[in-house]
């Protein structure tokens, strides 16, 4: 019997929920059962929501200790071609996502249409944009992200949307399952000028350094621990819309590859496979980048500050990547 109780995540078809009695005690309990959280993460198709971890805000080392339970390496963002102003000043394993200086990371625009019938922000692609899996522009990509709210936006704003790639793959219509078998996507670092909206705007792409070269990734990812298959895709900002988005298909924004990607994304992000997380301070969402995608939503950054911390854990991308050099460390 585990000391950590995991319940199904309410309002979702996937994911687990853990209510904690405080950060320090919870981290010590998790360390005493080092496989418990990864097993719960796998059971939840790659999504775990933890509540009540306010103590991490004053003791960020607790975040690192939790992160280490998910893999062999908690990434140092000073070594992963990350914009320096997004890296925590004292702890380089923490990425800081905030509208506050010096991070100055602004939320996405309010989507159009701005609201669903129930008053919420839209979730399904293409009305909701920005769906991605973290750092898929690197080979091998990171496995797990731990995302923590030091200070959240008001309710209904600054949500994070998650989609279940395992459920979405299992429920793909047979013709689409056939279409994605063996297919690869071409992923690219944001800001390259090769995003869908850049191509649409006729922007000239910038010269890429060799460590930023577009990377092929399988559209179906096989989970190295469970053997389950999940859709592994991004959309506008993190796919290469000049040579891709899908390898071997007609490229560009009007090509067959774009049409298939749109069809897959619309399915992947439908209500049956998605969850919208409304953050409270002290929440942590742990998500498996090998089997989920996510997207940020708008918040009123003129009037509200938001401060989020993220770590990424690397080390078990699966045999497909065995023996590969780290693409982002190529000279
Ligand atoms: Fe992300």
Helix-strand layout with pairing:
Layout: E1 7-8, E2 16-19, H1 23-32, H2 36-43, E3 47-51, H3 61-67, E4 73-74, E5 95-98, E6 144-151, E7 160-164, H4 165-170, H5 174-180, E8 184-187, H6 196-200, E9 215-218, E10 220-222, E11 229-231, H7 256-268, E12 274-277, E13 284-288, E14 292-296, E15 307-314
Parallel strand pairs: 2-3
Antiparallel strand pairs: 1-2, 3-13, 4-15, 5-15, 6-13, 6-15, 7-12, 7-14, 8-9, 10-11
This protein binds fe (ii) ion (FE2).
Fe (ii) ion (FE2) is lined by residues 132, 134, 294.
State the oligomer. single chain
Distance between the termini: 49 Å
Uncertain regions spanning at least 5 consecutive residues: none
Q: Class in CATH? A: Alpha Beta
Shape: globular
Cα-atom Rg, whole angstroms?
19 Å
SS class: alpha+beta
Q: Give the number of domains.
A: 1
Strand content: 15-25%
The largest sheet is: 8 strands, mixed
Name of the CATH superfamily: Clavaminate synthase-like
Q: Kindly report the average pLDDT value.
A: 95
Q: What proportion of the residues is helical, as a percent range?
A: 10-25%
Corresponding CATH architecture: 4-Layer Sandwich
**Number of helices in the DSSP assignment:** 7
Distinct small molecules: fe (ii) ion
Question: Could you name the CATH topology?
Answer: Double-stranded beta-helix
Q: SSE string, helix = H, strand = E?
A: EEHHEHEEEEHHEHEEEHEEEE
């Amino acid at each position: 019997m585990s000391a950590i109780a995991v319940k199904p995540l309410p309002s979702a078809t996937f994911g687990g929920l853990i209510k904690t009695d405080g950060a320090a005690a919870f981290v010590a309990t998790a360390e005493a059962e080092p496989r418990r959280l990864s097993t719960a993460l796998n059971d939840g198709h790659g999504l775990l929501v933890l509540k009540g971890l306010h103590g991490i805000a004053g003791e960020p080392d607790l975040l690192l200790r939790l992160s280490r339970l998910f893999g062999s390496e908690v990434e140092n963002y000073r070594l992963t071609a990350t914009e320096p102003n997004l890296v925590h000043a004292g702890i380089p394993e923490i990425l800081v996502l905030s509208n506050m200086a010096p991070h100055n990371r602004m939320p996405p625009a309010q989507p159009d249409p701005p609201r669903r019938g129930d008053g919420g922000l839209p979730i399904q692609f293409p009305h909701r944009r920005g769906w991605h899996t973290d750092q898929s522009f690197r080979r091998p990509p990171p496995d797990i992200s731990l995302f923590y709210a030091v200070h959240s936006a008001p309710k209904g704003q600054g949500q994070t949307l998650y989609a279940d790639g395992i459920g979405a793959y299992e429920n793909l219509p047979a013709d689409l399952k056939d279409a994605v078998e063996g297919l690869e996507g071409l992923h690219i670092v944001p800001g390259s000028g090769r995003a869908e909206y850049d191509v649409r705007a006729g922007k000239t792409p910038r010269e890429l350094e060799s460590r930023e070269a577009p990377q092929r990734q399988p559209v179906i990812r096989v989970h190295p621990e469970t053997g389950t298959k999940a859709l592994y895709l991004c959309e506008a900002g993190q796919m290469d819309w000049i040579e891709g988005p899908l390898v071997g298909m007609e490229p560009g924004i009007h090509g067959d590859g774009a049409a298939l990607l749109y069809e897959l994304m619309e399915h992947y992000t439908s209500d049956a496979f998605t969850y919208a997380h409304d953050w409270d301070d002290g929440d942590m969402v742990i998500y498996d980048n090998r089997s989920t995608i996510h997207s940020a939503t708008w918040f009123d950054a003129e009037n509200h500050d938001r401060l989020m911390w993220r770590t990424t854990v690397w080390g078990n991308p699966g045999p497909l990547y065995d023996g590969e050099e780290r693409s982002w460390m190529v000279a």
